[in-house]
Specification:
alpha+beta, 15% strand, two-stranded antiparallel ribbon
């Protein structure tokens, strides 16, 4: 049963990190830089299982619950989505033509990701509480 706590704890940590990164993206959604520099780039985490194994290897090591859960492999910048080009000749970071390159942060997408991370966090808390309730019931049976 203690392995379930470790799995849920790793999920809670991962989703908290995901929400922190999303909050950072939203905070920098309007952050511009001079035309000679690249604007803020949206960041996102890459998750992976704590241990990648085949199904047979997982069955052999089923008693080792500490190796299960999720881990953050990397936090990467979104270099594939270009930021919007806005015409604002009075802006201090405008180029020679008067355009400002905005960050590639889409606030609607970030809010959807925030809701998803919040729901995943809640699901991990629910699993943790269900495990606690099962352990309590198991202890009651022994009385």
């Amino acid at each position: 049963m203690l392995g379930v706590f470790n799995i849920s704890a790793s999920g809670l940590s991962a989703q908290r990190l995901r929400m922190d990164i999303i909050a950072d993206n939203l905070a920098n959604a309007q952050t511009t830089r001079p035309a000679s520099e690249t604007p803020f780039r949206r960041r996102y985490p890459i998750f992976a299982p704590k241990e990648t194994t085949s199904f047979a290897a997982a069955l052999r090591r089923s008693s080792d619950r500490l190796s299960q859960g999720v881990r953050v492999v990397a936090i990467v910048e979104d270099n594939h989505t270009p930021g919007e080009l806005v015409y604002d000749p009075g802006h201090p970071h405008a180029d020679e033509q008067g355009y400002v390159r905005m960050p590639n942060v889409n606030t609607v997408r970030e809010m959807v990701q925030m809701i998803s991370a919040s729901r995943a966090y809640e699901a991990n808390v629910t699993a943790l509480n269900a495990t606690k309730a099962m352990i309590a019931k198991a202890l009651e049976i022994g009385r």
